[in-house]
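Allow me, if you will, to draw on your knowledge of protein folds for a short while. I have a record of one protein: its chain in single-letter code and its fold written as discrete structure tokens. I remain grateful for any guidance, and I place the record below:
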Amino acid sequence: MAWIWALFLAALLLVFLLCCFSFDLRKLWAEWRAVHAPRRLKVFLQTTPGYDGLLKNFVCHSVSVDGEVRGSIKAEEPLLKEDGSMEESAVALLLDSLTGFSLWTSGHIGYVTAELSFQMRGHAPQSGEEMFVKAWVKDPPKMPQDRRLRKFAVLAFELSRSATGEEHALIASGEQLQVSIATLRQRLSWALQLLCPPYFEYVWQAGMNTLGSYAKYSQPFEEIRSLKELAALKVSGAGGYEGQLKIRQLNVNGVGHGAATASMLCLAASEAHAEQPVLEAKFFYLSPAPMQTQLLLEAKPNKNPNQFQVFMRLKKGSPPLIRGTVTLAPPPARGAGAAIPMVPMRSEESGSNERTEQDSSQDSSLFSDHAEPGDSSGPSDSGRHAFAPLPDEVDEEPYTDDEDTDEDH
């Protein structure tokens, strides 16, 4: 009798594996996931002790079966500057959090941010002004032509003053490149969740309970008045600025949230240039930023006017954890309140805003699988193998300080 049960269980396992690798399980219960997505997003934002929780007042209006998220949020603390306008780096928070949820809702897990960029298209909203958000999966996950590389996805985002997203009402736009670090065990568990909605709900609820258990260690949302106050940057004796990541600035894996570190680098560049507004920013994530560790943030003038190369390191001379460029508005003419120039909208006809498969493959070539990725299912696993060298578009002058020549790089 035992052998019959063994054969039965083996047959079930075989059918499950065939379903996992032969069918697109994402489409099976896609409508059910989309219907419940606004509720899940609301619970997540109000539960998480991390950086995403700063969007707890976000109202999700709808989620489509392919993961497109639409919603609104008011320009209010902690997203504001001292003058009552929205902090530009809050765009990174909205982008990273909501595009990540869009990808998860569309049926994909185990992805981490590799690149993040945003551009200001209009003047920053003022206190109390309502903003409308659209986040979607621009290029669904796919394998690059070189099969040794990791699967990647391109996500897109728009922030507007209009619910219908007219171009003249656009405030900001951005994109995010995410790469997969999911292990085989995670993929099989996710396949089972996609097959069985009750199990999906059970696993999700367990995850929310785990996040909620950490809330007592995080700074309450009501006590955070601004992103600048949360970053708490200090001038460093080694040049640049210093800061530490608190629990409120982490992601669900227990390392620095991509938007939190982007905000710190934007603030560092702005502080170094008379607090001028950020017009455009692009970041490359090379290694996870640890919590409660002193971090060095540098902003070096670039060849282009008002543009800075920015770096986040553990200490002077060490390899960067994050690097990129931040473009600031030029100072207004003396005695004149000059308007802040905004980044022009790219023309669809020019094709400059489109990523071809070849371009995406080149991007993904940054993330080769030289090592088996770690399990990113919990706070102790941070996706540390998901990051790789930066492209050549940002040139950094090497340090020549004598005190750094003996460092182990």
